[in-house]
Amino acid sequence: MKCRAYDTIAPALRPFCVSYVHPDRPAFYAMVSPSGVMFAEPEYAPTNPATFDDFSSFILHKDVFFPGSYGIELVGRRNHYARGTAGGQTVFAEFEDTPEFKTAASWFIFESTIKGKSIHLSVLSLYLYMTLCVRTSVLLLLYFNFNDIY
Fold first, then answer.
1. Where are the domains of the chain?
2. What's phi and psi for 32, nearest 5 deg?
3. Contact 80, 93 (CB under 8 A)
């Protein structure tokens, strides 16, 4: 889905900015709460209309922590990245320059195509599975624990 904060971010970041719509509730966007937890919120009745676009927009940074992986940064809180938690959630937390943070905040994206009306984005981690709908391209995000291969 087109980035809701497209006009407010630097032109160099615009190609990497996305917003995600829930597949079963098309008017609901993936959002990040003030505590950093992801949830779905309707665009027709946002809790905070002034910050809705920024907190429903994400920048995909390639090779930010490990080669071939992506960091998912929240537009509304720069330098805050999605990371998997031991409790099974995806939360956004401020960057920490530690191997643990970088591992937990690393995602792999696989593109594929589906014939038909809608395209799905699946976010998978060792602790979480979440599916969201993207209308323009298919991205499969996989959280991968680098400690398992080293």
1. 6-148
2. -125, 125
3. yes
Going by DSSP bridges, is the β-strand pair 58-62/38-42 parallel, antiparallel, or unpaired?
unpaired
CATH class of the domain comprising 6-148: mainly beta
d(CA 67, CA 10) in angstroms, rounded, equals 24
Q: Alpha carbon of 142 to those of 15, 94, 131: distances in Å?
A: 21, 20, 11
**Angle CA 118–70–27, to nearest 5:** 30
Q: Are 121 and 86 in contact (CB under 8 A)?
A: no
Residue type, 67: P
Tokens linked to 33: 């709460």
**What pLDDT digit, counting tens, does each position of 108-123 carry?**
765 554 555 444 444 4
Contact (CB, 8 A) for 57 and 75: yes
Q: pLDDT per residue over 19-37, tens digit each?
A: 988 877 888 999 999 899 9
Q: Is the pTM of this model over 0.85?
A: no
Asked if 81 contacts 97 with a C-beta cutoff of 8 angstroms, the reply is: no
* H or E, element range at 27: none
